[in-house]
Design brief:
CATH architecture of the largest domain: Sandwich
Radius of gyration: 20 Å
Number of helices: 1
CATH class of the largest domain: Mainly Beta
Strand order of the largest sheet: 1-14-5-10-11-12
Order of helices and strands: EEEEEEEEEEEEEEEEEEEEEEEHE
Number of strands: 24
Structural class: mainly beta
Distance between the termini: 23 Å
Shape: globular
Largest sheet: 6 strands, antiparallel
Length: 342
């Protein structure tokens, strides 16, 4: 699979100006979470305003080790920034590999290999990051002699570097960090690698839309309160250490599925991502299986074992399992999604 994850920053707060609520999808490892704030998004909804390289948000690690990685995000500058700011970086565990820096004086983006003090291998021309939203995409082929870096802004190539040492060691990156300096807003993130036959290269500007459960379809789990299961799992923002209500399973084989709000006004759809927060509160070991029912097809993934820690479990589907073709708006709107205990 090429598409690794997406995030529209809709699950980290419930109002503009509120503090960032910590989640695993983009976890905020520092104690000062008040340094991260929810802002107005690019197409409505929310964006995120982080603080500095000391207060980064980090994706969960991905696997595969493919040497080609692409990430894209919407960005805008606000106010009158004084300092240059690192805004994104690819890491191999805790080792910095590629840094993207915003230069205030020119509005351009600078690419460094290694740490924030690493070698500058190129800077964009004509990117001009300003107060309007633009969409930045960075593609890196990691190699110690023939590495490449390409940067696109709003679908236009603004930097192309070849024949470079982009590896800075031996490890391929397995996660992305996002930063800011209180003058940069970020939205509509995607990350992919070079594997597979779909979504394995620059996608062009993307929009990430979040929808939440609105109805029950199959209700076999036990609700923590009431009888409407969907109402217990439809929170817009849930942190990593608290919950007000939930559904639970004590044995394998049972399932809860839900109808979701409709999507609209979308171009070609790169994929659908299910994000489910779950944990095991004790007792029997159980797997959390993501279920999609589209048309006459029921698609369950292999599942992951639930642990005592609350974690965002992600499943990305690049195609509609019923048609094996890219998702359509009608396909998403008619499908149901849920969880199964395994």
């Amino acid at each position: 699979m090429a598409l690794l994850l997406v995030d529209g920053f809709e699950g980290y707060g419930t109002s503009v100006g509120s503090n960032y609520i910590n989640r695993f999808l983009l976890r905020y490892p520092n104690s000062t979470t008040s340094a991260a704030v929810i802002r107005d998004g690019r197409y409505g909804g929310y964006a995120v305003d982080l603080y500095s390289t000391s207060y980064y948000a980090e994706t969960p690690p991905w696997s595969g080790g493919n040497p080609t990685l692409v990430f894209g995000f919407a960005v805008r500058r606000v106010g009158s920034p004084i300092y240059d700011a690192f805004i994104a970086a690819l890491y191999a565990s805790t080792s910095s590999k590629i840094q993207v820096k915003h230069i205030v004086s020119s509005g351009e983006l600078e690419i460094r290999v290694g740490t924030t003090t690493g070698t500058v291998i190129g800077a964009t021309t004509g990117a001009a990051i300003g107060t309007d939203w633009v969409y930045v995409e960075v593609k890196v082929y990691f190699h110690d002699t023939v590495g490449t870096v390409d940067v696109y802004v709003d679908g236009v190539s603004r930097l192309s570097v070849s024949g470079a040492d982009t590896l800075s060691g031996t490890s391929i990156p397995d996660r992305l960090r996002l930063y800011s300096n209180s003058t940069i807003y970020l939205d509509d993130l995607y990350v992919l690698d070079g594997s597979g036959t779909r979504n394995n290269d620059i996608l062009g500007p993307q929009k990430v839309v979040a929808v939440f459960p609105t109805s029950d379809v199959l209700s076999e789990f036990t609700p923590s309160t009431g009888s409407d299961h969907y109402a217990l799992v439809d929170e817009v923002a849930v942190g990593r250490t608290e919950e007000a209500d939930w559904v639970e399973a004590s044995s394998a084989g049972i399932c809860d599925t839900f109808g979701y709000g409709d999507v609209s006004d979308l171009g070609p759809i790169a994929g659908v991502q299910l994000s489910t927060i779950a944990r095991n509160e004790g007792g029997s070991a159980l797997d959390m299986i993501s279920r999609v029912v589209s048309g006459s097809t029921t698609s369950d993934d292999a599942g992951v074992e639930c642990t005592s820690s609350r974690v965002d479990y992600l499943r990305v589907l690049e195609v509609d399992p019923d048609t094996t073709s890219p998702w359509s708006v009608s396909g998403i709107n008619s499908a149901v999604f849920g969880v199964k205990a395994g």
